Amino acid sequence: MPDHPDTVLTPSASAAGVAITPTSASARPRGRRRRRPLTRAGSLGLNVLSAVAGILIWWTLAKVGFNLPTPAAVAKQAGHLLADGTLEQDAMASLRRVLIGFCLGCAVAVPVGFLMGWYPVARALIEPWVQFFRTIPPLALIPLAVVLFGIDETPKIIVIFLAAFLACVIAAFQGVVSIDRTLINAARVLGAGDLTIFRRVVIPASMPYILVGMRIGLGSSWATVVAAELIAAQEGLGHRMQSAELYYDLPTIFVGIITIGILGLLMDRVLLMAERRLTVWQERR
């Protein structure tokens, strides 16, 4: 046993008889403090402080002459829209479109990304089309979708589907190709087949990538649905904002913007909660 209490023994050093250097508290680098993780209460307090500061800046800009409605005017208009059911109807219409298109896009993107990452033939066949459509903004496909499918729900859901799919499929593909091959080889040595490797190795290791892609796809879905509702819709937050623009109704426009931001933020937080549960095995720093 070493005499110094803080002596560090390495297997290679002890086996070769190499002199071992003691490490002590005095020998450790100074000047670096380990950052304490932010508690949940502290994080929530900072969130509230940030929101209050943003509202104060908004109110100040409105008072000093910027062409903005005050927070009080926007809150009053939101109350009117809630009272007559307009805001609830529009929010539910937009939320329904986003959920359908987003869920369908992610449900298709994950297996396609797995196929691209696992089978070289599938990658060679599918990746050129994925990269081709990635260069085309989903918003550019809205006129084509309207011409082909009319102005009902189908074209809106199709463009939202494409926005979510293109964001998530690349993330799933990247998750598969980034897996340490040592894990896969070890599973094969232990007798695991492709199905077991997919279930026990590929899916858990790819989950952080997939969830990041889903969060990106969620933002793209909301941007797409608003643009689609601006072009062809009879209800929805985008349609309400376009109608308010014709009458220069700034409070209603702000109500629509804030509602979209709140709904998107809540959905993103749900994905974050799912990420914490599904990647509990991952080392946190």
Features of this protein?
285 residues, mainly alpha, MetI-like fold, disordered N terminus
Overall description:
It is a single chain. This protein is mostly helical and 285 residues long. The chain is built from 11 helices and no strands. It has helices spanning 11-16, 40-63, 71-83, 86-118, 120-134, 142-149, 153-177, 181-189, 194-231, 237-246, 250-278. α3 crosses α11 (250-278).
- CATH fourth-tier homologous superfamily: MetI-like
* Count of helical regions: 11
Query: How many domains, in number, for the residues?
Result: 1
CATH class: Mainly Alpha
Q: Briefly note the CATH topology name.
A: MetI-like fold
**Poorly predicted ranges (pLDDT <50, ≥5 residues)?**
1-28
- The total beta strand count reads 0
Q: What is the H-and-E element order?
A: HHHHHHHHHHH
Mean pLDDT: 82
- Taking the alpha carbons of the first and last residues, their distance comes to 33 Å
What composes the largest sheet?
none
Helix/strand/pairing class, anyone? mainly alpha
In percent terms, what proportion of residues is strand?
under 5%
Using the alpha-carbon principal axes, give the shape.
flat
- CATH architecture tag: Orthogonal Bundle
Helical content stands at over 70%
Round the Cα radius of gyration to an integer and report it: 26 Å
Oligomer: single chain
